[in-house]
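batch job 7 of whatever, protein = dTTP/UTP pyrophosphatase
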Amino acid sequence: MPQDNSPLSRHPFVYLASQSPRRQELLSQLNVRFELLLPRPDEDAEALEAEQDGEAADHYVLRVCVAKAEAARARLVAGGHRAAPILVADTTVTIDGAILGKPDDVEHAVDMLARLAGREHEVLTALAVIDATGELLPPALSRSTVRFAAAPLAALQRYAESGEPLGKAGAYGIQGRAAEFIERIDGSYSGIMGLPLFETAALLRTARVEF
């Protein structure tokens, strides 16, 4: 029998609109096949992450995630790719109502880490899936609490100089050397890494992705 390639059939893969190796590894844990759908050189991906005045962190991360999903959908259509669901995630760290994005440099990373040290903060990861018909499914939000131990500035400086914090929200990666500073977490470990697997699996099932 001929294969059913209609948008409402089961889909053997998903487009992942993320350059993050961690998200790619986590998606592979679910045995989900994926193809990358990354921004073109002419796209200003960073502009989508700009904060709005007075914006709450949960609103921010959901808004940015949906905007990235819509940009990815436009990319798919313009490129003439075959129909399949698109998965997008965005992670932010928040403390005292402030949004901690990616540090600009080592000094900025040290400032962020010093702010987190000895305290609790929240890690929010938003998920958005656009199904193969082009419909945006209701986005999901994973919320976790992380407690950093008090740490001497010299230790934070050494960690920042390792280069690991650069490119990461809140200036740390829980799966790397930053684990030495983390006393406990309450929530989703995979969500803190950048792709909460429980919510991801639920959305992909709704989008009829095979795994």
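notes: The domain at 14-206 is CATH 3.90.950.10 (Maf protein).
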